[in-house]
Amino acid sequence: RAEMGVRNYLIEGVSGTGKTSVCHELRRRGHHAINGDRELAYQGDPKTGKPVDALAHESAAASVTWGHEHHIWDVGKVKSLISDQRNAISFFCGGSRNFSRFIDLFDGVFVLDVDLDTLNRRLAERSEDEFGGRPSERGLIVRLHATKEDIPTGGVFIDAAAPLERVVDEIISKCREA
């Protein structure tokens, strides 16, 4: 891959750690950044990639968990964007439950992390139509924050409680070191 001269980085983290904000700031600075949650995500089977319909669930909590577990990225689109030679660096910002199907294609992975108080404050500021804006969604996010169960292992942790400019500076700095 080194001969391509193009590097691709995944920016992951639980909801509320700042993936969308980092994406916007990278774009503002002129970097190629893909908002995975808006440009690559759909509800699908994490193993097969086949789209699935959200079925009726007995409770809001079951529905939230099901929706989270089936929030995946289009692997074909990820591979296509990674093979695109037009940008020196591309940043893929967002979470997906099928990252194991494409994580090996990235030159590095950054995991945004915040303390629980910062996470709760950020989630409380969200509107109800944004994931994490409802109490049933917050419970799941707080559990995932505690367990780190669906975050890629081996990623470089970034303290995303710092000011946004500093978070992005640190990511860019670590890309140059690589």
Question: Could you describe the 3D structure shown?
Answer:
The chain is an alpha/beta fold. The chain is 39% helix and 17% strand. It has 7 helices and 7 strands; from the N terminus they run E-H-E-H-E-H-E-H-E-E-H-H-E-H. The strands form 2 sheets. Strands 2-5-1-6-7 form a 5-stranded parallel β-sheet. The protein has a two-stranded antiparallel ribbon with strand order 3-4. Helix 1 (19-28) packs across helix 7 (164-177) and helix 5 packs antiparallel against helix 6. The protein starts with 6 loop residues before the first strand and ends with a helix. The model has no long low-confidence stretch (mean pLDDT 90).
Unreliable spans are: none
Secondary-structure-based class equals: alpha/beta
- Indicate the proportion of strand residues: 15-25%
Helix and strand element order: EHEHEHEHEEHHEH
Please give the count of helices.
7
Number of strands: 7
Distance between the termini: 14 Å
Biggest sheet architecture? 5 strands, parallel
**Global mean pLDDT:** 90
